[in-house]
């Protein structure tokens, strides 16, 4: 009898649905979700699906693709020495980002994370390169490294040696690209670490100091473990960003000299889109997309899984 009375007093499924439809959250979802889904489908899902189809055609971008090539584009890509060099260059960017860029960002964050007027100025100075557009950064550094009228030219003249063109040297061109990438993006990761360090409870730091811990011991045993989630996110952004490097390379070296400084995305642009080989470029794009998704899934399962 009590169960019958409790069921009679509980709202029915129709009543629950009516309440949800009349609530503010449901109304906002019904109004805002369809435009977002339409835009996401038009500008993300549809191009991805189109690239997956075009990758199997020898197509120049005009008219409907009719010349089916099967896996020929993928085979040609895998056997192309420039593509292999591009993959190696992208892996170098990942390595430099993890070994140089992120430790530098963490070191600077530990030095200037406290809220003081001086530190605010330093944060602004270090964050400015990230605000600068990638194309502008590449152009600025191309002038700096120019052997005729840049900073390098001034140094060579001061030393009395012949002009030296860094971006025209196969041995140093991509090293110059990686220097610019580190300079451009370390400020972004520094700000992530600063925000995380400011969230570390001060009483934990004070307790460690009272126990006799040195500055380095506080960093190693208290601060770094406490900001581990921020470090994990920063590493993820760094790896995915390294796979997408494009805007800095084009104005700085344009993939040269002799195609030695291409990344995967600049290779896609140069050997696919610029040469109207849309099918081949789509194959490169599909390969890059699969690699990025694989990295994201693997990284999330390995480092971002919630503890049981």
For this entry, give a set of tags.
308 residues, mainly alpha, MetI-like fold, flat, disordered N terminus
Give a written overview of the molecule.
This protein has helices at 2-9, 13-22, 24-54, 72-79, 81-112, 117-131, 134-144, 151-159, 173-197, 202-210, 215-226, 228-243, 249-252, 264-273, 278-303. The protein is mainly α and 308 residues long. It has a single domain, classed as MetI-like fold. The protein is flat and about 70 Å long. 25% of the residues are buried.
CATH class assignment: Mainly Alpha
Name of the CATH homologous superfamily: MetI-like
**N-to-C CA distance:** 41 Å
Mean pLDDT over the full residue set? 88
Approximate shape: flat
Sequence stretches where pLDDT stays below 50 over 5 or more residues: 1-6
Gyration radius (Cα, Å) is 26 Å
- Count of structural domains: 1
Entry summary:
Helices cover 73% and strands 0% of the residues.
Ordered list of secondary-structure elements with their pairings:
Elements: H1 2-9, H2 13-22, H3 24-54, H4 72-79, H5 81-112, H6 117-131, H7 134-144, H8 151-159, H9 173-197, H10 202-210, H11 215-226, H12 228-243, H13 249-252, H14 264-273, H15 278-303
Helix pairs in contact: 3-15, 5-9, 5-12, 6-9, 9-12, 10-11, 12-15, 14-15
Protein name: Sugar ABC transporter permease
Domain ABC transmembrane type-1: 87-299
InterPro entries: MetI-like, MetI-like_sf, UgpAE/MalFG_permease
